[in-house]
Design brief:
29% helix, globular, 25% strand, alpha+beta
């Protein structure tokens, strides 16, 4: 029997707080916010997303397709947890919260 603990990020919860809730992405509701985030150079720098780099071509149909493909598969990922941050007062997605890079030896992971 192994002493290593595995993170099971396959379960995608909805967490409700006083002002925000964290939930799995809903592309029909979240796409416009995600698009604007991915086009922000600072977001690109902090997340390593190529969409946000200053030397990147303008947003086009190909970039839109990549965004939908990426966020459309977040529910299938067992090695990471990607959740939309939703303002409860308005119901609007205002960002994302991500847990990834699980380290079983330290029982820790990356949060962004």
């Amino acid at each position: 029997m192994s002493d290593q603990v595995q993170a099971d990020f396959y379960v995608k919860p909805t967490l409700v707080g006083e002002r925000v809730l964290l939930r799995p992405f809903l592309m029909d509701q979240d796409a416009s916010v995600l698009r604007s985030l991915l086009q922000d150079p600072e977001v690109g720098r902090l997340t390593g997303s190529s969409h946000g780099s200053a030397d990147r071509e303008p947003w086009d149909e190909s970039a839109e397709e990549r965004m939908h493909a990426w966020y459309g598969t977040r529910h299938e990922q067992a090695d990471r947890l990607d959740l939309a941050v939703v303002e409860r007062a308005t119901g609007a997605c205002v960002g994302e919260a991500v847990l990834n890079e699980w380290n079983s030896g330290n029982h820790s992971c990356n949060f962004r």
